[in-house]
């Protein structure tokens, strides 16, 4: 009955608020109700994110003066690298076997979903990830913003000399769907989307902790690694986290790097080499320019600027909350290959390319962690 009442309330909300904001989150805690509410927001409006780029967003946040000031006062990103020796030494420790093994293991948790009514593998994947992080002896916490979710966003924190924070993130859920003919859950390993990105940044974190200054809190800034739940619930895991950072905790986030799909290089012709896709919409142009510098300096892979053309990943959540974000994906081509399907297994992935992404993450964090960002 509560579900029916909540759905009815959402339907009424769409009619009443079609040209304005949808109402606040309904009081009921069921996942089905939450999904209906989320779709209310998605259908009712086409809002504009704070930097003026229009798009279809699953929710619109009301941003306070803190977020507005963050948009107006750009961070001063380095114009040239200053930590070449440190980054290159650390990058030699990136282990392709670790990435491959972890992608395989995470993708064995098929249907890594936040909805407990469909699967238990979402929370099992979270527990496995937290166990892996405990081996690195890094402080972790889970985001319990929505108690109905059993898979939650995981945050690993390396304290620095200040609370200003550098963030690297990737979602670790895989899309849940159903076969309409049998109404059975479809097996969704999500190896490329996005065990590849999630485990790429895990390996980068392991390598970064080998640096004594970073590991002992002597970097200029705090470093956070995020593994987002509910990317396939319209970025709700990252939405809730960055919304809280902006409106409740008033966090000072200097940069957010998103890694979503890092392993598939596509069907390349004989004279074509793998390349990164550097997303230009829903991102911060100055941070994107800095990321391009890191790619040129610390990887052997070229990058091409591309439009994602939609609200395509979790970097948008940071942008909506007023934080500068950048997104680097596996290819300039937006592949639908195997995404959300049973065939998204580890077989077609390129571990060398994932190592290149890990080098990018290491360079990104080290250069920013010891820079003067203004």
TrEMBL record:
What subunit structure does UniProt give? Monomer.
Q: Which GO terms describe its biological process?
A: proteolysis
Q: What InterPro entries does this protein's entry cite?
A: M28_fam, Peptidase_M28
Q: Does the keyword rRNA-binding apply?
A: no
Q: What is this protein called?
A: Peptide hydrolase
Enzyme Commission no: 3.4.-.-
Q: Name the SUPFAM superfamilies on file.
A: Zn-dependent exopeptidases
Tell me the protein family, please: Belongs to the peptidase M28 family. M28E subfamily.
Q: What class of enzyme is it?
A: hydrolase
């Amino acid at each position: 009955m509560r579900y029916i009442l909540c759905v009815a309330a959402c339907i009424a909300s769409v009619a009443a608020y079609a040209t304005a904001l949808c109402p606040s989150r309904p009081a009921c805690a069921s996942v089905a109700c939450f999904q209906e509410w989320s779709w209310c927001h998605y259908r009712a409006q086409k809002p504009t994110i704070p930097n003026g780029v229009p798009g279809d967003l699953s929710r619109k946040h009301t941003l306070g003066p803190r977020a507005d000031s963050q948009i107006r006062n750009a961070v001063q990103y380095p114009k040239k690298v200053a930590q070449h020796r440190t980054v290159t030494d650390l990058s030699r420790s990136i282990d392709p076997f670790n990435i491959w093994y972890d992608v395989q293991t995470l993708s064995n948790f098929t249907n890594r979903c936040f909805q407990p009514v469909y699967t238990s593998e979402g929370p099992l994947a979270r527990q496995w990830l937290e166990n892996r992080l405990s081996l690195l002896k890094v402080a972790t916490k889970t985001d319990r913003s929505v108690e109905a979710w059993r898979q939650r966003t995981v945050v690993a924190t390396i304290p620095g000399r200040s609370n200003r924070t550098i963030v690297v993130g990737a979602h670790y859920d895989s899309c849940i769907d159903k076969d309409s003919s049998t109404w059975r859950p479809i097996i969704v390993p999500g190896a490329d989307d996005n065990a590849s990105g999630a485990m790429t940044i895990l390996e980068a974190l392991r390598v970064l902790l080998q640096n004594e200054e970073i590991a002992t809190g002597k970097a200029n800034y705090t470093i956070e690694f995020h593994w987002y739940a509910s990317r396939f619930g319209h970025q709700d895991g990252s939405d809730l986290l960055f919304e809280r950072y902006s409106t409740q905790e008033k966090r000072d986030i200097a940069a957010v790097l998103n890694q979503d799909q890092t392993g598939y290089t596509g069907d390349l012709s004989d004279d074509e080499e793998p390349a990164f896709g550097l997303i230009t919409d829903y991102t911060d142009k100055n941070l994107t320019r800095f990321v391009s510098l890191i790619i040129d300096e610390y990887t052997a892979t070229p990058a091409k600027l591309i439009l994602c053309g939609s609200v395509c990943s979790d970097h948008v959540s940071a942008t909506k909350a007023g934080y500068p974000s950048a997104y680097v994906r596996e290819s300039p081509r937006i592949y639908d290959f195997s995404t959300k399907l049973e065939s998204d297994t580890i077989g077609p992935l390129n571990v060398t390319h994932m190592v290149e992404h890990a080098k990018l993450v290491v360079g990104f964090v080290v250069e920013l962690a010891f820079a003067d960002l203004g």
